């Protein structure tokens, strides 16, 4: 009886090997579900968790969206939101969006939303960066401000961006300053210079005053700069002056533009 059992075991093992089973295949024999049709392990031998629906992996997850091993682009990348969503027909597909003030300028989800805006949270009049109060003397009121104005065609959520304009795929940058005046000319003069852009003519500078002078604006030319030039009386003593940089072109052409605002009051 012992000899018969041993012989039977040898024959059974040989039969399995003859059918193509391999001791090195983690999905051989009982390593598959549903009669050997669905793998429970990936090629490296790691276990694929059961989705509970009879499959060998969770095809509703971002790691296996729609099919085992189909990881969504951007998974584990920086500052992005990666999802696996069902369409109306029940098929699952990957989704991608950017977190807050991070932009996918290179249009490659695999590296996430790689460009961070700067400065941040200054995209409306109410959230403008305050530059304090200055006199009308050119030296004491001199300005030299730097920033980025990136854009993309992604949804921005988790969090969203207050002041974001979906048409241009960007958010304007606002600054505010009080012109206290003095025994000098109240002349508001500013220059906007844009670099790192293939379309510099997409950017404008606008300035407004609380007393109703203006608004003043300029659009950047092919040279990469534009100026608001005014003489005396372009604002009143004690005025709150707001200026902002805006992108006017479509979101369909992402880029990371840098800018500088120089001038004086």
Textual characterization of the structure:
The chain contains 1 helix and 15 strands, in the order αβββββββββββββββ. A hairpin with a 4-residue loop joins strand 1 and strand 2. The strands form 5 sheets. A 5-stranded mixed beta sheet has the order 7-9-14-11-12, with no helix packed on it. The protein has a 4-stranded antiparallel beta sheet with strand order 8-15-10-13, with no helix packed on it. The chain folds into 2 domains: 70 residues, no CATH class; 148 residues, Jelly Rolls (Sandwich), CATH 2.60.120.380. The chain is 6% helix and 33% strand.
Characterize this entry briefly.
With 265 residues, the chain is mainly β. Helices cover 6% and strands 33% of the residues.
The N- to C-terminal Cα distance equals 106 Å
Task: Report the principal-axis shape.
Answer: elongated
Element order: H for helix, E for strand? HEEEEEEEEEEEEEEE
Helix content: under 10%
Please tell me the CATH architecture of the largest domain by its name: Sandwich
CATH class descriptor name of the largest domain:
Mainly Beta
> Helix/strand-derived class?
mainly beta
Radius of gyration: 31 Å
Query: Quick one: how many beta strands?
Result: 15
What's the CATH topology name of the largest domain?
A: Jelly Rolls
The largest sheet, given as strand count, sense and whether it forms a barrel, is:
5 strands, mixed
Mean pLDDT: 86
Stretches where pLDDT is under 50 for at least 5 consecutive residues are 1-38, 50-54
How are the strands of the largest sheet arranged? 7-9-14-11-12
